[in-house]
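Reminder: ligand-aware prediction takes two inputs, not one.
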Amino acid sequence: MTSQLEPPKSKPLVGKLIESKSISRLSFTDYRETVRRHYDGLAGALLETGSLLAFHRQFVPRLFGPKSLDLSRCERILDAGSGSGQFLRHIVRRAAPNAHISCFDLSLAMLQRSRKRLKSDRPRPVVADLTRLPYRDGVFDCVVLGWVIEHLPDPRAGLAEVCRVLRPGGKALIVATESTFPGAWVSRIWKCRTYERDELRAACQAVGLRWNRVFWWTPVHALFKLGGIQVEVAKGGNGSGAETLERVR
Ligand SMILES: C[S@@+](CC[C@H](N)C(=O)[O-])C[C@H]1O[C@@H](n2cnc3c(N)ncnc32)[C@H](O)[C@@H]1O
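Here is what comes back for the chain with S-adenosylmethionine:
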């Protein structure tokens, strides 16, 4: 993918000043290597603690269930950028007993940490890059991307791969850092970028992923438009981008 998406016009100036610049300053190859080392090292070791402090341990489970992302009928599920295993843990819990669960991450150390924590040999881990997935076309019913798409300068490179490995009608859950003041600080800590909702929706639409439902952690998050982007997308057509606003529980 060569062309870049239009830069978001409404990114707040203060956010632009705080946000990490490494993703835009380095070539993708160099940036990816920086990210891999970041997660192999201390930052990756502290990810679980960071999630605890950010209340993600309390919020993430709400994304899974019959009223949110229902995994009960999915035979093949992929956790993309599985990191510390924070999403994987719920996938293992919620997936049908005979479902195949795969996961990948750029960082081998992260895969090893999550395996230790999960104490389950159900997920099949591989070291892989989101922009070059080692899976056949249309094999997954569901893909989960938890805070990983912000590690790509152009999200379409990863989203197109997600769309390719999804079966027609398959769904994906995307959780991403938003271009807000808190989001800019998150970007600084994790050396990633942030997204405007419209920009991410346009990128999904460009590769054939339609926004189905938007989730908010709590009614307070919905009211103040906080907590980042949580969206369920489906493979099939470019859609109108029309979305149903829905709170998680
Ligand atoms: C913020 S962590 C989130 C991990 C996990 N989903 C969670 O919520 O705990 C981002 C993860 O994405 C991985 N990552 C970053 N860029 C990637 C890429 N291009 N391909 C695959 N994984 C990547 C990192 O190694 C890291 O483990």
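The chain has one domain: 13-131+139-247. Residues 150 and 193 are 5 Å apart (CA to CA). We will return to this case in the review session.
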